[in-house]
Write a structure and sequence with these properties.
Layout (H helix, E strand, L loop, with lengths): L25 E3 L7 E2 L2 E3 L2 H8 L7 E8 L4 H9 L2 E4 L2 E4 L4 E5 L19 E8 L6 H8 L4 E9 L2 E2 L14
Parallel strand pairs: 2-9
Antiparallel strand pairs: 1-3, 4-8, 4-9, 5-6, 7-8, 9-10
């Protein structure tokens, strides 16, 4: 689902959700069409700005399924920061938290990821407080482990928990 209310091709958007959103509600950050997980929506610009400001160090944690068996060395590189390309310019990512995890319990993905019988996959939790375009995918590729599935698990203290795709939970200020 695209993180917008307007239509764009055949992709589902926030307008497809079974919820009556106020007109002045916008996403806090975004998820691309290939990513899943938690998306906060708000009409509080102060809240949105505070959560997205890298200087505030509000971490966003992603559960990432990668091709291959992720190593401690690769996690250490991710944690220290890696050099990725953004708009054909080199960018050194800020330090992050990266650790190998067991496969999390998540809803099935539709469509499922590609499966290769002879190539294992593994999972890591990657926490960032910056958000460049497709940054997580670029980071895991930079250390030799391409991303297969990307799920935003949390933003600051807000967690996906047991929510299902398309489910909306309203929270108080």
């Amino acid at each position: 689902m695209l993180s917008q209310f307007s239509r764009e091709g055949e992709h589902a958007t926030l307008a497809d959700l079974d919820f009556e959103f106020p007109k002045d509600v916008y996403p806090v950050g975004r998820l691309d069409a290939d990513s899943e997980g938690l998306l906060l929506l708000t009409n509080d610009n102060f809240f949105k700005t505070r959560l997205l400001d890298p200087k505030q160090r509000h971490f966003r944690t992603y559960y990432v399924q990668v091709e291959g068996e992720i190593t401690e060395e690769a996690c250490a590189e991710l944690a220290a920061g890696v050099t990725i390309s953004i708009n054909k310019k080199k960018h050194r990512t800020l330090p992050a938290r990266a650790e190998k995890i067991t496969e999390p319990t998540l809803p099935d993905r539709n469509p499922p990821i590609r499966f290769r019988k002879n190539i294992p996959t593994s999972w890591l939790a990657l926490s960032l407080h910056e958000g460049k375009n497709r940054q997580v995918r670029r980071m895991t590729a930079a250390v030799g482990f391409p991303t297969l599935r990307l799920v935003r698990w949390s933003m600051d203290h807000f967690e996906l928990g047991g929510m299902q795709p398309g489910e909306v939970t309203e929270i108080n200020k």
